[in-house]
What does this fold into?
Amino acid sequence: MIRRMLRVAFPLAVAVLIGAQFFPPARTNPVSDPESSFEAVARPPAEVASLVNRACRDCHSNETVWPWYSKVAPVSWLVAKDVQEGRNHLNFSEWGRLGPEMARSRLREVCEQVRGNEMPLWYYVPLHPTARLSQTEVTTLCNQSPGGPAD
Amino acid sequence: MTTYRPVLALASVISLALFCGACGKESTTIEPTKLKSFAALPEAHASGANDPAAAKIALGRMLYYDARLSKGQTLSCNSCHPLSTYGVDGKPTSEGHLGQRGARNSPTVYNAALHFVQFWDGRAPDVEKQAGGPLLNPVEMAMPSEKAVVAVLKSMPGYVNAFRRAFPGEKNPVTFIHATEAIGQFERGLITPSRWDKFLKGDHAVLTPEERAGFNHFIAAGCDTCHSGSLVGGNAFQKLGVLKEYPEASDPGRYQVTRNQNDRMYFKVSPLRNVAMTGPYFHTGKVATLDDAVRQMAQYQTGKELATVDREAIVTWLKTLTGDIDANYIKQPELPKSTSRTPRARATA
It folds into this structure.
């Protein structure tokens, strides 16, 4: 009985998986004004800019480096969704759209999230080991971000 | 079975009590971490570059109420931003010179000095620079030039003296820039602290359990992503239609200022202070009710269809942002008398 079910289910799953490849999500890197970037607007210390670039850029900027698995469904859909949500909430390429109060608030959130190990996302780090931040780096990000140390 | 019945009944009662207790705690207690992105309003928003002298505020108040600063001499700042009704006229778009309509909803002037930029598209950096816009806009107050404004002001000794008091030591106190500076200075005092500020300062009992629950709904819906800070907005540009294209795209927003394609449909995030009193909503002014504004925001900005109960809860909390208007501060002053040199009204386009 089980064998008969598997005989039907397995080819069906393969067919669905192959079919899914024909519906790729949009993997775009919108063109943005370099003058509006975090580096240009907030002028962070080089170390902070480098940490942001290393740990946050893929999901929180318009300069996403789309990995090979982002082209394979269903993972592609999840990656595209994460990037879309990440950019909507915080986009380092469009820092110029934030007023001073909001910019400070966003940087405080960044600090809290990395300090609490909520960011980078746990499943992102094994595939991007350079995104892992040491305690010293987290402290640097929190204390040296423009606007002063986070609480 | 009979033996177990009382035990089961007791267990049910305890479970229900725990469940309800948990519900109550979750919905009416605001976690301090959720408040980190919010701040109380300052007493008044002073500008370093603009001396907040009482004489300047008094002059700004006169100018704010003076319809002689419009081409038809029928419109003042207060016509489209009436201070007695939370700084709005309640119309989708306001009526300007010869009944012409502006393209966007007139926002409230209350707390406007705290916005990170002025106008829906951020084309002015502060209230001083903003104040000059409507005076010269042909569909608003329609004064033909800065010179024409100055001519009106200089024709009245009452104004000349008021400018001298506000700008002591200036060789030429009556200028267009000084007029906008004085209006801006007056506007910097239009701050409306509310019960929300008392709550943020530690008086937690000032909000009802329903209002506190409403805030939690606001957070759960993700509204605070853009609506945070002391104004609950007004501190960033955001695309209208982040997750779902906004159907009315004839006004491209900030693109009109920058001509950058990336800025299409970006607008300044509306501050939510006094929002219950400042409808109709959005830059179009076509959204009549706060409930619909909340519904549409959730739909287009967060991709969520909010249930009626969520919207009602959010609106309940939004009403706590309705602040107190200082009746003394906004009291219309006696305006300088016109003279034979004061230009007459012009009823031409």
Q: What stands out?
A: Chain A has a mean pLDDT of 88. Chain A has seven helices and no strands.
